[in-house]
Specification:
The complex is a heterotrimer of chains A (82), B (354) and C (156). Chain A has 82 residues and is mostly helical. In chain A, 71% of the residues lie in helices and 0% in strands. Chain A starts with a helix and ends in a 13-residue tail after the last helix. Chain B is mostly helical and 354 residues long. Chain B has a domain at 33-258: Cytochrome Bc1 Complex, Chain C (Up-down Bundle), CATH 1.20.810. Helix content of chain B is 70%, strand content 2%. Chain B has helices at 4-13, 16-25, 37-58, 68-77, 82-109, 118-141, 145-158, 165-173, 180-212, 218-221, 230-255, 281-289, 299-315, 317-320, 322-325, 331-353; strands spanning 27-28, 228-229, 293-294, 297-298. In chain B, strands 1-2 form a two-stranded antiparallel ribbon. In chain B, strand 3 and strand 4 (297-298) form a beta hairpin. Chain C is α+β, with helices and mostly antiparallel strands. Chain C has two domains: 1-40; 47-146, Rieske Iron-sulfur Protein (3-layer Sandwich), CATH 2.102.10.10. Chain C is built from two helices and ten strands, in the order αβαβββββββββ. Chain C has helices spanning 10-37, 52-56, and strands at residues 47-51, 62-68, 71-77, 83-87, 98-100, 105-108, 113-115, 121-123, 132-138, 141-146. In chain C, the strands form two sheets. Chain C has a six-stranded antiparallel sheet with strand order 1-10-9-4-3-2. The chains are: A mainly alpha (82), B mainly alpha (354), C alpha+beta (156). Chain B binds chain C through residues 149, 152-153, 156-157, 170-171, 173-177, 179, 181, 185, 266-274, 288, 292-293, 298-300, and chain C through 37-39, 41-44, 65, 67, 69-72, 88, 90, 92-98, 108-112, 125-127.
Chain lengths: 82, 354, 156
């Protein structure tokens, strides 16, 4: 466990030094306003995903309920109205 | 969304009900290793992200060595959301390779490659090679100093193979050295040759999965279990996994946009301590283990021969593993799979730290 | 000996002919394709000619790069004033090397390889010493040639 932690720390330090090492081409919008918008959008995106996941979870529970009731199989000789 | 006329239009021409029944009949075994079934679909999803982001990036990228680097800077700094989609393409590739390796090891350790699914294993292996080559060729398109040096090392390493090495090296580089010709070549590989083969082989791979059905690991095949229908249960679970993976990729892309270094210069000294992409690190680290000379032979050639032997053994493992072919447990090959996994992990971590 | 019936039926003969012909045809086409896909290789130059004024005047214990074909070459003035030219490419994995004046050594950053002033591989993974060139000065021309190559300038 300790070795693992050390290894991760090592990776982190290596990455961090690489990060701070050299002046680089700007790959992220610089102004605080744009940054705010971007992070906000990221949060909204996640809210969208979580919402979808929750709805799918509800659907899955519904499917399970129907299966437990045993009405998921369509009857073959059901009279059709048309 | 219930269009009876459209529906009847189709059902008059195609056997819609038959196709739907086929789709409904697909079941997925439920057992304690079922999580492994999601890795393949996730890989497919990440490939789809790569295709879409790659398409939009190719609208702006200029595959010529004088302009390539500049055009990427243009994409990142001037275009709407350009930085985001480049970053998404980068992180999508990284995570696709991670998931691909997870998928590989799930298949290897659960022995899903065993008879009758050998062709699935082989096609998957080809896809792995294609993905790695995707990574290498995409890396050079950035045309910055690090990519330049890394591709020089990687293609030079292929040149150490006996007999065919020089051939492969020259073919990849499009000349004696990494140059503007190499960039053109790698661009062609990256946007036309590899994607076409990927689509073909992925289609074959997925069709084979449908043909064989999901593999059940030997350790749980004897137990009684209830199979769940693919639609809707597993389909919705797949969707959840995909959404979360999409969220992760987008988060990584936003928080850690990959850096761009200075433009590649064939006459500049190599940048300090360059490292290849992480999925090459274990190879790189293996090469470092070998001294320059072993019994008067070139150590590198021996290392590359050994690596090739290891990879070929992994490729043909379904043919070697006779016990699981007969449907018996084969702990020996579980151990071999574990050794491969441990070697990969340990060497990658050492490569990172050193 | 005469056989009453041919061992090869007309059908197998035709099938073999068709299969073989098809194989040869496709093989030829594939060969043409591969021949095109395979690049025409440029060669490394035998010699390059540089401007002597630009290169002879560099300070001692320093290098000045020049283009050796598509690769990196170094014109090198040692601390004692002697000059040499060498290929600035590591013999290990073909990375470009750099000169470290304070240590008086050549250094390859890719895998931490070291070469001394004479190009000998002294530390790290490089298996061979660096390649040195012959240097000759004729008037204003500095001729850098591969060892053992006789430079013949075009008369003009």
């Amino acid at each position: 466990m300790k070795e693992l932690a050390m290894a991760f720390a090592g990776i982190f330090i290596a990455v961090a030094t690489l990060w701070a090492g050299q002046e680089k081409i700007e790959v992220f919008p610089g102004s605080p306003y744009e940054k705010l918008i971007i992070y906000e959008n990221l949060i909204i995106f996640w809210i969208g995903i979580i919402g979808l996941v929750v709805i799918i979870g509800m659907k899955l529970r519904e499917i399970k309920r129907i299966r437990n009731m045993g009405i998921d199989r369509e009857e073959k000789d059901i009279p059709v109205l048309d | 969304m219930n269009c009876p006329r459209l529906r009847s239009w189709f059902s008059e021409r195609y056997d819609v009900d038959g196709i739907r029944d086929l789709f409904r009949k697909k079941t997925v075994p439920a057992h304690r290793y079922e999580i492994a079934y999601y890795t393949g679909g996730t890989t497919l999803f990440l490939f789809a992200i790569q295709f879409v982001t790659g398409m939009v990036l190719s609208l702006y990228y200029i595959p010529y060595f004088e302009h390539a680097h500049g055009s990427i800077i243009e994409i990142v700094t001037k275009l709407n959301m350009g930085w985001f989609f480049r970053s998404l393409h980068h992180w999508g590739a990284q995570i696709a390779i991670v998931v691909l390796f997870v998928h590989l090891w799930c298949t290897l350790l659960l022995k899903s490659y065993r008879k009758p699914r050998e062709l699935l294993w082989f096609s998957g292996f080809i896809l792995l090679v294609i993905s790695i080559f995707f990574g290498l060729s995409g890396y050079l398109l950035l045309w910055d100093e690090r990519a330049f040096a890394a591709v020089r090392v990687a293609t030079g390493g292929a040149g150490n193979l006996p007999l065919v090495g020089g051939f492969i090296k020259a073919f990849l580089r499009g000349g004696m050295d990494v140059s503007g010709d190499t960039l053109t070549r790698f661009y062609a590989f990256h946007v036309s040759i590899l994607p076409l083969f990927t689509v073909l082989i992925v289609a074959g791979h997925v069709l084979l999965v449908q043909y064989h059905g999901m593999s059940v690991p030997l350790s749980v095949s004897g137990q009684t279990r209830k199979d769940v229908p693919f639609f809707p249960n597993v389909f919705y679970k797949d969707l959840i996994v995909w959404l979360i993976v999409l969220g992760m990729v987008v988060t990584f892309a936003t928080l850690f946009p990959p850096e761009i270094r200075g433009k590649a210069d064939p006459l500049a000294p190599a940048p300090e301590n360059i490292k290849p992409e992480w999925y090459f690190l274990f190879l790189f680290q293996t090469l470092k283990l070998f001294p320059g000379q072993i019994f008067g032979l070139n150590g590198e050639t021996i290392a590359i021969l050994l690596i090739t032997a290891g990879i070929l053994f992994l490729l043909f493992i379904p043919l070697f593993d006779i016990k699981s072919q007969r449907g018996e447990k084969s702990p020996l090959f579980t151990w071999i799979g574990m050794i491969y996994l441990l070697y990969f992990l340990v060497m990658t971590v050492i490569g990172f730290v050193s | 000996m005469k056989i009453d019936y041919s061992l090869v039926s007309r059908r197998t003969f035709l099938n073999t002919l068709f299969g073989g012909w098809l194989l040869a045809f496709m093989g030829g086409s594939a060969y043409a394709l591969l021949k095109f896909a395979f690049p025409t290789l440029g060669k490394e130059p035998d010699f390059v000619i540089l401007d002597a004024d630009q290169y002879m005047g560099i300070p001692e214990n320093s290098v000045k790069p020049f283009a050796w074909g598509g690769k990196l070459g170094f014109f090198f003035k040692r601390p004692d004033g002697t000059t040499a030219a060498l290929k600035g490419v590591c013999t290990h994995m073909e990375c470009n090397i750099a000169y470290k004046p304070e240590e008086r050594k050549f250094y390859c950053a890719c895998h931490k390889g070291w070469f001394d002033e004479t190009g000998k591989n002294i530390a790290g993974p490089p298996p061979k010493p660096l390649e040195f060139f012959d240097v000759r000065i004729e008037g204003k021309k500095l001729m850098v040639a591969r060892k053992g190559i006789k430079v013949e300038l075009p008369k003009a």
